[in-house]
Design a protein that fits this description.
Elements: H1 13-20, H2 23-26, H3 34-46, E1 51-55, H4 58-68, E2 76-79, H5 85-92, E3 97-100, E4 123-127, H6 138-148, E5 151-155, E6 163-164, E7 167-168, E8 175-179, E9 192-196, H7 202-208, E10 213-215, E11 218-219, H8 230-241, H9 243-261, E12 267-269, E13 276-277, E14 283-287, H10 294-303, H11 332-340, E15 341-344, H12 352-363
Parallel strand pairs: 2-3, 2-4, 4-5, 5-8
Antiparallel strand pairs: 1-9, 6-7, 6-13, 8-9, 10-11, 12-14, 14-15
The structure holds pyridoxal-5'-phosphate.
Pyridoxal-5'-phosphate binds next to α4 and α5.
Length: 364
Amino acid sequence: MSILVTKSTLPPFEEYIEEIKDIWQTHWLTNMGAKHDALQALLEEKLDSKHIVLYTNGHLALENIIAAFDFPNESEIITTPFTFASTTHAIVRNGLKPIFCDIDPVTLCLDPSKIEKLITPKTVAIVPVHVYGNVCDVEEIGRIADKHNLKVIYDAAHAFGEKYKNKAVPSFGDASMVSFHATKVFNTIEGGCAAFQDDSLVQILNDLKNFGIRGPEEVRYVGGNAKMNEFQAAMGICNMRHLDENIKKRLHVDSVYRELLSDVGGIQLKSVKKDVSSNGAYFPVLFNNYKKTRDEVFEQLAAEEIYARKYFYPVVQDFDCYKDIYDSNDTPVAKKAADNVLCLPMYPDLTNDEVRKICSIILR
Ligand SMILES: *Cc1c(COP(=O)(O)O)cnc(C)c1O
């Protein structure tokens, strides 16, 4: 039997059927229905956020958050090149310019000590990513942003269910995007949200995700369509009931990996930060001067039907759509991480034996 890098979480079949039954009474399928509102309320509590605006996916939530601040065209946004395509694309698709800042070699998140020298009169915001659920240095990033009057918008796609100093990670910054994609710790099939405390953002985000429509006869913005439908919200309501148990199982898998792979020369494991209660989202391993390269390990695992993922690889500047504009050598730490990282299979039902098999192939 092959092992994939992840396996989407589903509630028991009957539980989902029960949850969607009343949709056949109301015939309300999308456009902010009862399921949407119920999930929104659950998430405001879960994410310690005064406001949650739900989206059909995380990417459009991020695009809309950036749009909501209405930055002047061609403004600069300092961000990380060690991320998924979504983060950078969300900036560029808003007509803004990403400025890549290198990352910390341990957390793989934006290195705050390298931010300030990239700030110019055109800089308007910082868009960091809580990579793999490793929490960014939110205090230092917040201090720099305050000093230079910049917005901080977190890509918290990996940070659902995670706390830092007893506060939900997506509650930091001016706003955060969280993804509820099928492969994430919590899913609504596809889905996502904006999480924030500022009252003035609520209406504009709700307008932007619905064609910019403010009222029956008023279209205020050039918005798109990014609403979460009732079947997605129902999946979220069900999956929320099993979230804690699933995170517990992920953390068990995490601990078995650590038992077998810590203290192996040349292998760097996912960092553990003080004051963070982790969601067990991913299990990335960096092969830095290991006896085998990352690609060799990847191939060997694949030969035995174990499909790990080079995530994130390549680094963003090396994408076809960016490589003529940027040079990945400007961020050597990020480039090296992308060349050496491998995310090992991680999901709640991965068994001890499967983890042992994966590790034995790596150590062989
Ligand atoms: C998954 C992901 C996204 C995009 O979320 P979707 O819900 O798939 O649109 C953005 N950023 C990062 C870092 C992600 O992992």
